[in-house]
Batch of 2 targets.
Target 1
Amino acid sequence: MGTEASTAASAAARFEQWVLPEVEVLLRVARSMTHNPHDAEDLVQDTMLRAYRSIDRFDGRYPRAWLLTIMRNAEINRHRRQRPSLLTEAQQTLPDPVADGGATAESKVIDLTFDAAVEEAFEHLSPDFREVIELVDIGGLTYAEAAEVAGIPEGTVMSRLHRARGRVRTRLERHGYDAGRQQ
Amino acid sequence: MSIFTKIRRRHMAMQMSCAEVGAVLQQYLDDELNETTSPLVEAHLEMCRKCGLEASIYTDVKNALAKNGDLPEDSVRRLREFGERIAHGEIPADDPA
């Protein structure tokens, strides 16, 4: 009994040391992965539960990378479990500044602030490009961490980022934003 | 800035061409560049208006994108509490499968 209690205390201490400080990073990445605030919270909870279960087998090196790998696997499982019919459920999604319906294309362009223009350009990127931007620029991950989450080589993260930002920039220029000088 | 520092910065700035800086600019802005190259890029960006403007627009873009990473405080609080309850054994972490 004494051994069990000390094992539990040890697992709790490791969990508090390695997992709890990463909650915000996990949530950012989960929001990027799911595009849905409720699913994102569920995914982080699932990740924490899985992490606790396997914490005895983790050597303590690079906890963020370890957690992100767990999260990626949890997300893959979530998709496998999700029946196609559930995908059509009305879900609360993260704000989408582009799909706002009523406004005309002209009025959107006129009303664009710099941040909105960047966001609009971001929404026009392909999913592969959006993913690296979400992980590095929005999620705040390093290239190595983003590579782990996306399941692609670090060099690919770098090249996709470079091209993605280039496309954002080109689109901004089309909207009249010059390099280094906001309109 | 002393004249000596200015000369040193200019010397550093000239160690990399604009093309070389352009090739590593994204890594520099992401703080992914090594400690040897990073100060050379920094010096070049200070001295070269064209590259400095290039860096400026990408910094603006990065900052604008980063604003999307702001998290709702209540979500973070709920998840921290959830994690603490796991750690204290209040939530069974056994695999339900």
Note: Residues 83-112, 179-183 of chain A have pLDDT under 50 and may be disordered.
Target 2
Amino acid sequence: MSAFLTVDNLSAILDGSDHRVLRSVSFSIDTGEVLGLVGESGAGKSMIGKAVLGILPSAIRIVEGEIQLDGHNLTKMKSADRRRLIGATAALIPQDPLTALNPSRRIEPQITNRLVDILGWTKFDARVRALELLNEVHIDNPERVMASYPHELSGGMRQRVLIASAFAANPKLVVADEPTTALDVTVQKQILRLIRELQARHSTAMVFVTHDLGVVSKVCQRLAVLYGGMVVEKSTVPDFFEGPKHVYSRSLLAATPKYTDPDASLLPVDEGVIEQVAAQVRAADREWRP
Amino acid sequence: MNPDTKAPAEALFSVAGLEVALPDMAAKPAFGRAPMIQILKGIDLEITRGAVLGIVGGSGSGKSTFGRALLRLIEPSAGTIQFDGRDITHLDEDTLRPIRRRMQMIFQDPMSSLNPRRRVGAIIADPLSLHGFDAISRRVDDALDHVGLPRSFRQRYPHELSGGQRQRVGIARAIALEPEFILADEIVSGLDVSSQAQVLNVLGSLVKELGLTLAFISHDLSVIRRLCDQVMVLQRGVVAEYAETDRLFSAPQSDYTRELMDAIPLPDPNQANW
């Protein structure tokens, strides 16, 4: 069986320069599988998520490689067809639950509009589905939440709404872009559990973008570590946490806070390691011809 | 050492029955005053000279409000705050000004707390001239040396620096004034893990070297464990637990502390309770 999402040798440049922001990125995800994309700021992890959803900023241009979604080659499709396909099969859980919701509209239309306008549901069906989903994300009083404005809800509630909204149209692929970074640790735990629960129940394929290896170890089966838009290591989660292979991944893991092991965590990343991985990126660029 | 039995003389801060209420703007009627919400509900605490105190709690627990009240950026509604033996609870701004130099703050977001239109040198020098220091140029160099940034960074603008470097500028600005007390409010939560460790190391060694007293607000218990001697756990404006760091981690007394600990996703796929 071929993977549900395959990204093959994907490179993107900043338009008007020959500076690559994604460097020959390859990975695949099966149905029901969660892949973590891990890296520090500027590593290109969100960029990959955006490329998959076809929402790259206009200044970023894909110059090489393919994205295969559910057997369709996105990079070769007409943009209207591509949008229709992605709209029907994929969804995003964004990072910041406050900016992702329109502050001047109630919650209900923000969940149902996509179902009605893009997928052609009736308003009634969309409303029923929205209520059902708010139940599914453990919101006690869905009617009241549907009638609320975003500012009337807490951060955790808003993120639940966005998760409900992402799963509304039964997507086969969900891209979660740092969905818990803005939340409190106790709320983060609830939200991560919720995402895991929905993902497992619907056998969704998932790209989970995060900088936090702790979070990866909780929700992902596999992960790819990125640096400078390049995948430096791919591994299964159990293998990775046994001992990462790449020196940069090892540093990243050693830098991750772990209160149970204060002497062997939160260690500064050695400049030599950064230099080493940066050299690897430069070497890849020298060999690369668009 | 049991924090409860320390002699009051060595306390830099003594806080007793501290209450803070702030107006709830979300519930404000179109006309008239906003109702007040009680944020801190009677906090007693002593911060020993030279101690590194960690303050943890979930969002809305009042940890930042507590820090701001300590620095008298907020006026408490009840209780007292003594700084170095002097009651500062209701001092007016003019009387506070000379004391302000002695208590400095490092902020969460280094981008919005550094003026984007001023160079690093000026950012560090401005508070020095405001407080009437001499030899300002030398002091700026010293501050940069202390935080491990090259002196040439005086000429740079904040946007030319990485997040970790910016946060070190924030530290340099605070220590340049030779304060006795520093409040660090979530100063590493916006940073990448690789620079988190660096900033914590810089701050940790400065505290020792300069004999500073530090209150370190964080939601991350791992970071607290690395840096702090004592920890105060706040829950909805009340102290849920106050203990020496080692004891807090080996035998947490409050359910809320345990809940916070359990909620931290450790880099370990086999962590219990997940």
Note: Residues 193-210 of chain B form the longest helix (18 residues).
